[in-house]
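Throughout our pipeline, every protein is held as a single compact record rather than as scattered files. Nothing more is needed to write down the fold, since each code stands for a local backbone conformation. For reference, a complete record is included directly beneath this paragraph.
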Amino acid sequence: MATIERAIVCAEAPPLHKNIANMKTVARREGKFYWIVGRASLDIIKSGGYKISALDIEREVLALPYISEVIAVGVPDDEFGQRVAVAVSILQDDPEPDFAETHGDETHTLTLQALRSDLRSRLAGYKMPTLLRIVDGDLPKTASGKVVKKLLGPQFFPEGYQNDPAVQVWRGTRAPNIGSKL
């Protein structure tokens, strides 16, 4: 017998036990009951209280004329829960002759600041990528031609990514709240 209480489903363990193992569901067990907390999804990034669609971010980044492929993933973060991270493959034929001068620096072909600037009119501020990794060539795919975010996210943005020179980290500052009282 199942009951719904405050959007959390409680069900007795035996009939639901095999189904939970097969679903992408986050659940906890208390005695003979499972408390279903929610679904696990790589296409939803939870950052700072927002639920952000990774597909929306990928669509807007892919619309830029110099991007060939992109994946957007959530990377664990102490402050926001997750950070919006993108791994991109840049078109081999530069769309603009001065692309390197306008979008890159001495270290990177494309800077995170330039990418965010190009996305500013397309994405809300809370959806902006805060991590960027540029991938040489195409993104790795399965035999069927699909990108496996579950594997590539941790590969491109591993624990300790802050020390990886290939990962650009946005360290933007917030404007001070002048009207607030201390």
In short: The two ends are 53 Å apart (CA to CA). The chain has two domains: 2-39, 44-169. Residues 44-169 form a domain with the GMP Synthetase; Chain A, domain 3 fold (CATH 3.30.300.30).
